[in-house]
Design brief:
heterodimer; A: alpha/beta; Rossmann fold; 2 domains; nine-stranded mixed sheet; two-stranded antiparallel sheet; 6 helices; 26% helix; B: alpha+beta; eight-stranded antiparallel sheet; five-stranded antiparallel sheet; 19 strands
Chain lengths: 270, 475
């Protein structure tokens, strides 16, 4: 049986995330929470890659407050057999490194795992760093932005979704993969899954249980600090060309594109 | 009723003097764009194009415009976002299209009285968002809420997914400011939950399709926000078992869903094709019918128990599978197919008729059987979906590309459908309105006395007949 750890994060349920200008952190109050979408795609991918659920033992792991138990129950409803919440005040304020340290300690204790899976990034941080950092800490190879994977003979062949096109990489197991939304359509839990998840136990582990020095986790263990916030200024320069001046409008549009370097300028034309 | 004056260049110049150059538009592209809605124009025989589009910015400007139009006998067709499904915003007699696009401010959120007051051009989803920001729900949100304007919602008394629990748009309107045809401004209703002082003009105007007055301000009822909600997708093997299950939900569990939607096999297949989605594992033979059942509550544990009760009942009633969406991502995934169906119909069929009939819940099974029969007889297909919880079914009659007489067959199908609907105690439109598309059939459902009353009410509000002429009743 293949052992898989799926990392799943609870994130604010909003498309308009507000920031605390003083602390540089997200304002989470009143936003509600949802499971991180790409982590759900990671769980959904397992259903696609391994149609026989009895071949897998999936452990869902989340670091977060007590309320993150809801997100773990969603993972249980989607097929995870175990759920573990890493919950301790000492974990609060963690940057990506301190998060990876905590998750790494948990996976060392709960493992070994043949495969570690998570979304490419979380919608609240948008860093995409935790997966690779965790792989380095665990000493296993990793591939980011995975959109396809096929498993066999202790190896996995993945297709990564990169800006300049797909890239194929083969990795030995165990390894860590971070996935994009293209990896699988979002699976929906069944009523039976929800029933099971509602009654299942969620294991809680704190810093002591993971034998973690409190100075290495949370805010204290973070290597980065938000020292300031800057917002990009979006500027629109709209010109309206009334009926009858369409040709002038097209010329002005082409000039503007050339000025921005999007198309060759008149002097560069062959 | 067709003796309207043309909007001559001299009158356009006068209108510009009255309202300003930036309020009056005669660009042919703009005129064409404001001369149809979401209904295929072939449904009316003599389509007209607006002669001017006017974008008023205040009640006072609307008042001056209507006084001008009354004085010159120029028709005025109020228009929101143009998302209507009855030809209600189509200028049947040309003249002026009065667009609400510039009257688009949220004027007040009154938390104490649980109301929100808006101008008619506000997009419905913006009202929903503003209400949510204040901790309330605006429940009269139709399926087109991301695009439609509240003025159009009120004028058509739009329904939507949550009618089964909260009622249609009109049920959520407390007060209206309106400009009468002669330019006088008046207010109906107020921020009060009860009112029997005089006639209920608020709910006469809601659904009057812009034929009685122009609405310039709307006060809507807000309701407490439910802290949690969950959507179930129950996959039944056939339409009969799905429809038979619907009344059992309330009767046997005592739970009133917030939404209760049906998608029949053809609707599901169209939606899947449109989204390029694979076949459903619960529906290997393509005969399945799905129900979406939305439950709301304030206590997660209690809601979990309720979803298990309703979901268990569905499985006991023959559902092959029940899926559960308890957060936004899952909900969006679950509803994507349902929301794709109307677009899919237009994408894959040139000849179709989107019907909006309503029957008592107990009559739905018989009606669905009859629709199947009539489509078989006429060589048509039918995709039925919609608000099965309140009896409002969007019966989409579809003519295959190879059909020898699509127009004639669709017309015969509509007449047979309407006859069946009437036999079952139903009616012509539940939420799309009559407009131009269905005015020729209203006499199948309303007797001469009622039609006469409608005409007399119209004449009382609008003696010159300039407000959205040619709608609801035949001329």
């Amino acid at each position: 049986m293949m052992r898989v750890a799926v990392l799943i994060k609870q994130v604010p349920d909003t498309d308009r995330v507000r920031m605390d200008e003083t602390s540089g952190t997200l304002v989470r109050d009143g936003a509600g929470t949802v499971p991180n979408l790409l982590d759900l795609h990671a769980l959904s991918a397992l259903e696609t890659w391994f149609p026989d659920p009895s071949a897998l033992l999936v452990t869902a792991v989340s670091m977060g407050p007590a309320s993150a138990e809801t997100t773990l129950r969603e993972a249980l409803a989607l097929g995870a057999r175990e759920a573990v919440l890493l919950c301790d005040r000492a974990f609060a304020g963690a940057d990506t490194w301190a998060t990876a340290v905590t998750l790494g300690a948990a996976l060392e204790r709960l493992g070994p795992f043949d495969l570690v899976l998570c979304g490419e990034k979380a919608t609240d941080g948008e860093t995409g760093q935790v997966g690779p950092e965790l792989a380095v800490l665990l000493g296993i190879p990793f591939a980011t932005r995975v959109q396809e994977a096929s498993f066999g003979d202790g190896r996995v062949l993945v297709t990564r979704q990169l800006e300049d096109g797909p890239e194929q990489v083969e990795l030995p197991l165990p390894c860590l993969l971070t996935v994009t939304a293209a990896v699988a359509p979002l699976a929906l839990p069944t009523l039976a899954g929800k029933r099971t998840a509602r009654r299942a136990a969620v294991t809680r582990l704190d810093a002591a249980a993971l034998r973690l020095d409190p100075t290495t986790v949370g805010l204290a263990g973070s290597l980065t600090r938000v020292v300031g916030l800057e917002r990009p200024v979006l500027r629109r320069d709209t010109r309206v060309f009334p009926p009858g001046q369409s040709a002038a409008g097209v010329d002005a549009f082409l000039d503007a594109c050339a000025h921005l370097g999007l198309i060759p300028g008149p002097s560069e034309e062959p | 009723m067709n003796d309207f004056a043309p909007l001559t260049p001299e009158l356009v110049a006068e209108l510009i003097c009255l309202l300003g150059e930036d309020r009056v538009h005669t660009d042919p592209d703009r005129l064409r764009a404001c001369s149809f809605d979401e209904v295929a124009p072939r449904f009316w025989k003599a389509p007209r194009t607006a002669e001017a589009v006017v974008t008023c910015r205040s009640t006072d400007e609307v008042s001056r415009l209507l006084a001008f139009a009354s004085g010159h006998r120029i028709p005025v067709t109020p228009r929101g976002a143009g998302t209507g499904l009855s030809g209600g915003a189509v200028p049947a007699h040309g003249g002026i299209v009065l667009s609400s696009e510039r009257m688009n401010r949220i004027l007040e959120v009154d938390a104490g009285n649980m109301t929100i007051t808006v101008q008619p051009g506000v997009i419905t989803s913006e009202i929903t968002a503003a209400a949510a920001e204040a901790g309330f729900l605006y429940a009269g949100d139709p399926c087109s809420g991301d695009a439609s304007c509240i003025g159009g919602n009120v004028a058509e008394n739009a329904g939507g997914n949550k009618v089964v629990k909260y009622g249609a748009t009109g049920a959520n309107v407390l007060a209206l400011e309106a400009v009468l045809a002669d330019g006088r401004v008046t207010r109906f209703g107020g921020k009060r939950q009860k009112d029997v002082t005089g006639l209920d003009f608020v709910h006469l105007l809601a659904g009057s399709e812009g034929t009685l007055a122009v609405i310039t301000e709307i006060t809507l009822r807000l309701v407490p926000w439910c802290a949690c909600s969950v959507d179930l997708l129950a996959c039944f093997p056939d339409t009969a078992s799905a429809v038979a299950f619907v009344p059992r939900i309330v009767r046997e569990t005592g739970i009133l869903p917030a939404a209760l939607e049906l998608m029949d096999p053809t609707a599901l297949a169209l939606g899947r094709r449109y989204l390029r989605a694979g076949a459903s594992p619960e529906d290997p033979d393509g005969t399945g019918t799905h129900l979406i059942i939305q439950l709301e509550g304030n206590h997660e544990e209690l809601l979990d128990t309720e979803l298990e009760t309703v979901g268990g009942l569905a499985l006991g009633a023959g559902a092959r599978q029940v899926y559960v969406a308890s957060h936004r991502h899952a909900r969006e995934r679950l509803w994507r197919l349902r929301k794709a169906i109307p677009e899919a119909v237009m994408a894959f069929y040139e000849w179709y008729s989107k019907e909006d009939v309503v029957v008592p819940l107990s009559e739905i099974p018989a009606l669905i059987d009859e629709v199947g029969d009539l489509c078989r007889d006429l060589g048509l297909r039918c995709a039925t979906f919609g608000h099965v919880g309140d009896g409002n079914l969007h019966v989409n009659l579809l003519a295959p590309a190879e059909h020898p007489d699509p127009e004639g067959s669709l017309e015969r199908a509509r007449l047979r459908l309407y006859a069946h609907v009437k036999e079952h105690g139903g009616t012509l439109s539940g939420e799309h309105g009559i407009g131009l598309k269905r005015r020729g059939y209203i006499d199948l459902f309303l007797d001469p006395a009622q039609l006469d009353l409608i005409r007399r009410v119209k004449a009382a509000f609008d003696p010159a007949g300039i407000l959205n002429p040619g709608k609801i009743v035949p001329e």
